[in-house]
């Protein structure tokens, strides 16, 4: 197993963006499924102790992913992500519904 997988995280405060570039020790099909299958994505997306619940997902260019981050106190925040490009990675524009 390669213990030196690429991981880069950068923040651009001027245009309010975060760029994460990461290499996984898995094939593209498995990584794609982890990002695009609601039942799988909901298992790992939220930081602990929160959980994620996907309401709808459309990963075509211009599509949207609508989900909620749910706290242990059952408080939720709705979040949408708009898919702007698809290839060997996923690029999102992000918003938050409070």
Look at the structure and name the CATH superfamily.
START domain
CATH class: Alpha Beta
Mean pLDDT: 77
List low-pLDDT spans. none
Task: Output the number of helix runs.
Answer: 2
Count of the separate structural domains: 1
The best one-word shape is: globular
CATH topology: Alpha-D-Glucose-1,6-Bisphosphate, Chain A, domain 4
Strand proportion: over 45%
Order of helices and strands: EEHHEEEE
Largest sheet: 4 strands, antiparallel
Descriptive overview:
A hairpin with a 6-residue loop joins β3 and β4. This protein has helices at residues 28-36, 38-44, and strands spanning 7-12, 17-22, 51-57, 64-70, 76-86, 90-97. It has one domain (28-97): START domain (Alpha-D-Glucose-1,6-Bisphosphate, Chain A, domain 4), CATH 3.30.530. The chain has 98 residues and is an alpha+beta fold. The longest helix is centred in the first third of the chain and has 9 residues, at 28-36. The strands form two sheets. Strands 3-4-5-6 form a four-stranded antiparallel β-sheet. Strands 1-2 form a two-stranded antiparallel ribbon. The model has no long low-confidence stretch (mean pLDDT 77). The chain starts with 6 loop residues before the first strand and ends with a strand. It has two helices and six strands; from the N terminus they run ββααββββ.
């Amino acid at each position: 197993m390669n213990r030196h997988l690429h991981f880069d995280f950068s923040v651009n405060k001027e245009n309010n963006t975060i760029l994460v570039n990461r290499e996984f020790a898995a094939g593209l099909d498995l990584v794609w499924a982890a990002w695009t299958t609601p039942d799988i994505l909901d298992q790992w997306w939220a930081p602990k102790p929160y959980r994620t619940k996907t309401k709808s997902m459309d990963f075509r260019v211009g599509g949207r992913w609508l989900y909620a981050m749910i706290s242990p106190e059952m408080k939720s925040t709705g979040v949408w992500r708009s898919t702007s490009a698809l290839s060997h990675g996923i690029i999102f524009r992000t918003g938050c519904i409070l």
